[in-house]
Amino acid sequence: MSVVFSDTGRAEVERLLTRYPDGKAVILPALHLAQKEFGYVSDEAIVYIAGLVGTSPAEIEGIATFYTMYNRKPVGKYHVQICRNISCSLLGAEHLIEHVSKKLGVRPGETTPDGKFTVTKVECLGSCGTAPVMQVNDEYHENLTVESIDRILDQLP
Amino acid sequence: METVLTTHFANERYRRLDTYRQYGGYEALKKAFAMDPGQIIDEVKKANLRGRGGAGFPAGVKWGFLPKDLSRPRVLVVNADEGEPGTFKDRLIMTRGPHLLIEGIVISCFALRAHACWIYIRGEFIREARIVDEAIAEAYAAGFLGKNILGAGFDLDVTVHRGAGAYICGEETSLINSLEGKRGWPRLKPPFPASVGAFGLPTIVNNVETIADIPWIITNGGETFAALGVEKNGGTRLIGVSGAVNRPGVYELSAGVNLKEIIYHHAGGIKGGKALKAVIPGGSSTPVLRPDEIDVSYDIESMGKIGTMAGSGGVIVIPEGACMVRSLSVLMNFYAHESCGQCTPCREGTGWLKKIVGRIEEGKGREGDVELILDLCDNMMGRTICPLADAAVMPAQSFIWKFREEFDRHIGEQKCPYGNRF
Amino acid sequence: MPTLTINGMNVDVPQGTTILNAAKEVGVEIPHYCYHPKLSIAGNCRMCLVEIEKFPKLQTACSTVVNDGMVVRTDTDKVRKAVTGVLELMLIHHPIDCPICDQAGECGLQNYYMKFGLHRSRYALEEKVHKKKVQDIGGQIVLDAERCILCSRCVRFLTEVTGTRELDFFSRGDHSEISIFPGKPLSNNYTGNLADICPVGALTSKDFRFKCRVWFLKAFDSICTGCSKGCNVDAHHKGDILYRLKPRWNDAVNQAWMCDFGRLTYKAMNEARLLTPFMREEGARKVAAWGSLLPDVAFRLKAAAEKGGPDRVAVIASPQSSNEELFLLRRLATELLGTKNLAFTHRVAGDGFADDFLIRADKNPNSRGAQLLGIPDGEAFDALVSKIAAGGIDALLVFGNVLGPLSEEETAALLSDVPLVVQVGTNEGPVSKAATAVLPSASVAERGGTFTNHAGRVQRFRFGFPPRGKAKNPVEILVALGNRLGAGWTFAGEASVFKAIAGTEPPFSGMSYDSIGMFGQEIKG
Question: Is C41 close to B344, i.e. CB distance below 8 A?
Fold first, then answer.
């Protein structure tokens, strides 16, 4: 079962190809696009992108598994990524991670049975001044407390 | 104090082209187009502008490494990968002042005779990439990018390229490989990017802040910029303070500001009235300082003299009551997670360091573990293709040298005296 | 020519030479894994760290070019500790597989551990990172990712030599693992080279798996008989059993590589061999002694030529024979039997697959030699086959095991009505089934000689071990037959035959075994 990008997706790849001297430079953007269009980077997506840029699936797999943002397995509707690096830890990130795990009933790395939340511990998100910080899908949530995390997660549809 | 970058950051509209221009935006560009590229590079040299990414290499000197012959097109790559723990300043520039960056890019490319620039933004900065993209679109529409900019006959294309989650891609050759669509493995040097860089072309890689400083330097002159700092470290820096302080955040201060003043005056001192225990001064990869060591100028030379680095300008403040072994364990986990795996000492060494420090913190440390860590550090330092191994080693060594008793206690008592908590 | 001083010794090297290669010139071996002379420089294993005067940090010898006046040391404590340190880090996750690993005895980790390690492990067994073991990844290769030291040679080979890149690095850090994409196994014709270039037992040969410990193997130089490329090989054997072929370095022919098909050609030398001479009597094979069979065959051939005339006698040569054998056979046919019915079998039989690298459509090692020595093929062979089919031949001398392109059935049909079929061959097949007399001959491992490859390069293959069973060197068979037919030949082995070839055959004029040497020599014109 193969996959292809939507018309807009294909148009975006075409546009990107004009922005670099070498076509392989679209591999990272293409993987982001695949994640957006297919929900995660599936085996089929890898084979598809390999065909688009003219290389082997192994090479694309090597790239997809090198970078943490590409999910090779589906994640929940909301990917709750909590920073566990030094500044956030100094301000209680460990406690927040424990709290979220208990609240959602999963361990870091796992997805809730209803498929709504995946919780992961991530490294520095580059917002140390407003630690503790987490990223839920595309959005940063900063200056976290137990209360604010509860509020944020409870309000997600 | 005179500010170079943050002057109008409090104004949320400053990110828009119309507001940016109201405050004199793109006037520096007009001035630059009337200059000779060589003159621009001279101003940057006079400015004593040291790279703001962490390595602190003089920008004007780096620019001079491009080959004299123009037969191969040269390119500029802006490093917006901002991954060094404790560092969060480039994000501020991109969200509050993206046009500062763009104007800096156009002037720099004009000086370097480059007609293509890619801004490599770390993948997690999704909102920031969107803001920069919008600013770029505004710039194209207004004729500050694209063909025949301001009728000066200069063409330039700028493209945002998003990363996908890898700290190592902040290293310039790893970034170049990632830009080209590869795994983020650093390259052997030589050849240096100035001769063989992105897509094989002569390339200059500069940090966001370094480039953002350029318009002000052109408007006010290199010497004026230099005078804001100290002898070998000109201008102001965006210094991020995080950890246990009352007012964490980014502060634009002289490059020669006093470190104690940064923490106690600007950042409001230690949270909860606690005492200070340790300071990691320039991002997590820099050797840690004890409280009695922080009364020092934050400039690159002075920090080097006391055996640490100003690095990426990320001051991390550790309070009394925090476990140093646990703090180191967090960092060792980080480097092991981020090691690209290309070369043996870093790939295996960071993983091993993580395991040893981890077991010490869990109360399972073994006799000889501290000596093992230090020996391992010796076998990693300076042995690798890129400095990530060194970045893991410097915290490990300095934490042990300056807080040895804590490690010995963990091992001797077979538990964390702080109850496995921060 | 910049001068390098290494460990106190001076050496001049061409501009662009790396320290690693310069050191070799003066006998200094710098340990390394990722460097391979036929692949790009990776510089990532970090074993080849050396001390260079005026450089604050140790540098990798594989990637540092010699500048005039450079002073390098590899024998200092600092370098020794660095090398031991890198080796220790490579070994911390390495599984203790030596007792079951095929690489034992030719393993880079074992070798350098004995030289630079000899340390006790400081890493606990239960902390080792585990990866996937024993994976059939296609082609001729088994992958054990846990043994891999991530030197990247395999990925570079598949990127730069075959261009197929079926293997790559997945994940990062100490969880990095070489693997194929699921469902996309190795699918090129050169997979066997991966086992050669892998310094450890991560990539090993399926065919060779668990067959023999390498320290029992002896090696001799040979030439692959799989096609007309003539790849140079090392043949490995224990006693009279061949275990594997590995490419031998020759920049003029195959660089450091050979194809998968060629690698398995050794099997034919071990299996289904003709080992006993026999003469068919009343349809049944009757074992004969060389002493009586050779005169008998010579007599019968001579009788057939005299009775019906030379035109009723035919000789089919094989492009698998050596130059020396073909030279003698041509003379036997034309001078001694006086017949013009002489040809060799088709060059391209079977699928005729070829590529733009090593594989050629002609699956024979010496078609060019046969042609240069004046034996025709193609139409001449076809005409001869028609003549035989029409009942025009009473006595046929055949070299080889098959009559390419004829099928088994066609061969059986063709030969069934020929009164006398004498075969000089190595393996059972359609010819031996139909032959009246079978004279078993030595395989390419059991004799010496030369082949001429497609490009006219004459290359030596060397004697490995004495022929199995009662098989005989075909040069001996031809000299014996020739002399029984009145040749008066005094040749004593292939060297003397080659001297004669060099003396009388213009393409080979002036050549000698010495001038051919290790890398071969091209014919004139």
Answer: no
